[in-house]
Amino acid sequence: MERTDPAAANKTPDCAKPTDNSTADPRTDPARLPLLQLDEVKVHFTVQKGLFGAQTVRAVDGVTLSLQPGEVVAIVGESGSGKTTLGRASLGLVKPTAGHVRFDQQEISRFSAAQRKAFRRRAQAIFQDPFATIDPYMTIFESVAEPLVIHGIGTAAERKERVYAALRDVRLTPEEEIANRYPHTLSGGQRQRAGFARALVLQPDYILADEPVSMVDASSRAELLYLLRELRDRRGITFLYITHDIATARHFAHRIAVMYLGRVVEEGPAGQIVDQPLHPYTKALIAAVPEPNPENRRQTRPVLQGEPPDPSHVPSGCPFHPRCPAVMAGVCAKAVPPLREIAPGQWVACFLFDGQK
Prior knowledge:
It is a single chain. The protein is an alpha/beta fold. The chain has helices at about 85-90, 115-120, 140-150, 155-170, 175-180, 190-200, 220-235, 245-250, 270-275, 280-285, and strands spanning about 35-50, 55-65, 70-75, 100-105, 105, 125, 205-210, 240-245, 255-260, 265-270, 340-345, 345-350. An eight-stranded mixed beta sheet has the order 6-7-8-3-9-10-12-11, sandwiched between helices. A hairpin with a 2-residue loop joins strand 11 (about 340-345) and strand 12. The longest helix is centred in the middle third of the chain and has 18 residues, at about 220-235. The protein is globular.
């Protein structure tokens, strides 16, 4: 989605002070180049409809986003908003229909085989399901060591030491015992930690973390988030953190981008987005976050009505207008609102803010 200020099209929105739980903003040098850039990225799929028909699903429909080295950007939104597809595009696992994905200033779609293999060493992923990401027929040692074997890194002794170091980093100890176990003997939290170790063993610069804590219990979720934050601070890893949970995004990320039907509708510093949301959709997501207050059982909480539309039939104009509680008749259905900087570092795509900034 284009921003209204042409001079700002290639600039990352400034990140304000980090949240109380985060470290200093890693982007201290204004001349520092982004590690990952997504410019007007679109990912459309053609699916069969009936015997002879077809329709286009616009999973991602024009997203511009940059991640600085050491920065954590969270992508939040309902199921079907295009978060995972955008993440997969950032790793080159899905080819964009239009737009550009650049890693370290290089277009990843133009990588040679050797460049792509080198890219795989620097970019890794942590996926949602800890029961599907680790081979049940391999020991934890074999699973974590496999990326080192594929890339021909180190001798057998050196690989062993790196695997043990990765297990210690994710607090799977004693590492000698854990390394010889099979996945079915581990708890869900331990298995997810093994997935973290597998992603970390190559010492990557960038990690796509796609709902990495959604399938573990609440206590393990908190531990894993603290672990990710520690790795972020100690190693300076850049994360694209995909989640439904805007509360964990505030805890872990420097910046939040809110997606709806393949578009970014609000973007800005994590604390600012959560404490002072501007877009009606962001407000609805935050209102849905449960609060530990017994009085809430006697109160009716605001609920966003309806379900997200089918991405193969995106509404005209602002895609959120059929569900928006602040919709303006004759305005919102006619055109797609551009992302504009409404508050310092906070970009919003909504006609409610026409004439501001």
